[in-house]
Design brief:
With 415 residues, this protein is mostly helical. The protein contains 19 helices and no strands.
Length: 415
């Protein structure tokens, strides 16, 4: 299949709708596998967070256990992310899904020491980062360029909806099963994701003219990070998002009885935000709303300084969740600045960095909560997210873009 263009996306709504996208069998397979993987990851994180909270009563360790896998994603971005643009991406994705299945199944072993569980968490994060890059590289091959933002919007919406169901299901399952039983449930979902991808996605020989590996990964990453506009885009994609996820990582410590409610509310807000921004707004309007959405991502969490009632806190978390839609216009801009031959790796690096900052945010929030308490920590970390957003405002992004040359054939081949 010919590569889709990576030039500027026209500021008009794409003609393709969600139904038309899902009629594409390969996209439907990637989408279904992604959905099952998100469900499994949600259940696994909830189960592991519950185990760690029960055994340690530590806000820091609980927060890290829920989002600690994201620390390992940076290892994938720095070492082997170029496999996302290899000659056999379908085979790569299937192998990575199988390794993820083995890791989730291992977490279901009763009596596993916490040190081993955290080690498994890091290994899974490494495989997850490579899988994300490979999946996004395939996505850019199986849908036309004009439908890319819509496809990402649908996947983001589904991630939010699946997380809602996952957290709700996890809370229900824990009433009847042990956390190890929830891990078994997650392993079954991971196996289904593996089967769907293997059955529906065909092989694509895409993009790279040189062998994937450590050197190729570093060369492309150096080209990506040497550009001021792309650097600032990545900061906006990574840091405010990651700090707000740190706020969410404290929900179990803040209110164990209602943590599932807060997590579901945040996922519902994410679903609604991605639906509205990705489906109803043109590319131009998405860009104009990006700064406001990045502020919305963090400002509602400042309410936690007042220890609000559960219903009001849930509304605040819901509103903040809608702010995650700011990633869509930023991802569109990053795609415009990315040469075709390295789209998978660049998208993998973006995703890995975003997930790594989620782990950093969880660690920062957990560390602050260890000394100041969960409510104060949520407020402090949310304020830090607002400060970063203001410092990296749209005007700064436009000034950085002035120094950016559009990537030509030379950059594509050298990257």
């Amino acid at each position: 299949m010919p590569s889709s263009p990576s030039g500027p996306i026209a500021p008009t709504a794409p003609a393709t709708g969600y139904r038309e996208l899902l009629r594409n069998g390969e996209f439907a397979g990637l989408y279904a596998g992604f959905t099952l993987t998100v469900a499994a990851t949600t259940l696994s994180g909830f189960a592991l967070g519950t185990i760690v909270n029960q055994q340690t009563h530590s806000p820091f360790l609980t927060a890290v256990s829920m989002y600690g896998a994201t620390f390992a994603t940076v290892l994938g971005a720095l070492t082997l992310m170029s496999v996302a643009d290899g000659k056999r991406p379908r085979r790569t994705l299937v192998v990575l899904q199988f390794l993820a299945l083995a890791g989730v199944a291992a977490q279901a072993v009763p009596g596993l020491p916490l040190a081993v569980r955290f080690a498994l968490l890091l290994v899974l994060g490494f495989f997850q980062s490579l899988g994300t890059g490979t999946r996004m590289g395939l996505l850019a091959e199986v849908v036309p360029g004009s439908a890319y933002a819509l496809a990402r919007s649908l996947m983001n919406i589904t991630a939010g909806g699946t997380a809602i169901l996952g957290y709700a299901t996890g809370a229900v399952l824990l009433r009847f099963l042990t956390p190890q039983g929830v891990f078994v449930f997650a392993a079954v979902l991971t196996a289904l994701a593996l089967a769907v991808v293997a059955a529906t996605v065909r092989e694509h020989s895409i993009r790279l003219t040189r062998r994937p590996g450590l050197r190729q990964t570093w060369t492309t990453n150096a080209a990506l990070l040497s550009d001021p506009a792309r650097r600032l885009l990545l900061v906006n994609l990574w840091v405010p998002n990651g700090l707000v996820v740190g706020c969410e990582a404290l929900f179990i410590s803040y209110d164990p009885a209602h943590a599932g409610t807060f997590l579901a509310a945040g996922s519902a807000g994410m679903l609604l935000g991605d639906l509205a921004v990705g489906r109803l707004l043109t590319a131009g309007r998405r860009r104009r709303c990006a700064f406001a959405l990045r502020l919305l991502l963090a400002v509602p969490f400042l309410l936690f300084a007042l220890h609000p009632p559960v219903a009001l806190a849930a509304v605040a978390v819901f509103l903040a969740g809608a702010g995650f839609a700011a990633t869509l216009p930023l991802q569109e801009r990053l795609l415009e600045l990315t040469p075709d031959p390295v789209r998978g790796q660049v998208q993998g690096v973006e995703s890995a960095g975003r997930m790594t900052w989620q782990g950093i945010g969880a660690a920062i929030a957990g560390g602050v909560a260890q000394y100041l308490g969960p409510a104060t920590a949520i407020t402090v970390v949310a304020a830090a997210s607002v400060v970063v957003t203001l410092v990296c405002a749209d005007g700064s992004m436009r000034r950085a873009a002035v120094h950016t040359a559009e990537p030509g054939p030379a950059s594509a081949s050298s990257s």
